[in-house]
Amino acid sequence: MGVVQVETAFDQFADRDRDYSMLIDAGDFTGDEVIEYLQILSMNMIDIVIYTHPDTDHIGQMAIGIKSKKTSGPSWTVRF
Asked: What is the pLDDT of residues 20-57, one digit of tens each?
């Protein structure tokens, strides 16, 4: 099995009585690892979407993910 490097992070956490999901970046547009991972987790909604910068290795699958998943909350671009 090969090793794939994907520029993304996914987290689930709770605040008080509510559970949240957060996606930070979404890997390269030539792959589908991020989308497949979210499908394995049966994620049908992502509460928070953050993309750190517009390089294709960070936002490539973001468009696919946003089209196929609902977002219940904000989407942020992080600027340094």
From this structure: 888 888 878 787 888 888 888 888 778 888 888 778 77
Contact 10, 40 (CB under 8 A): no
Running DSSP on this structure, what letter comes out for residue 49?
E
Q: What gap in Å lies between CA 21 and CA 31, rounded to an integer?
A: 22
Global pTM reads 0.70
* Alpha-carbon radius of gyration of the chain: 12
DSSP state of 25: -
Residue with tokens 């987290």: 11
Tokens for 45? Answer: 């909604």
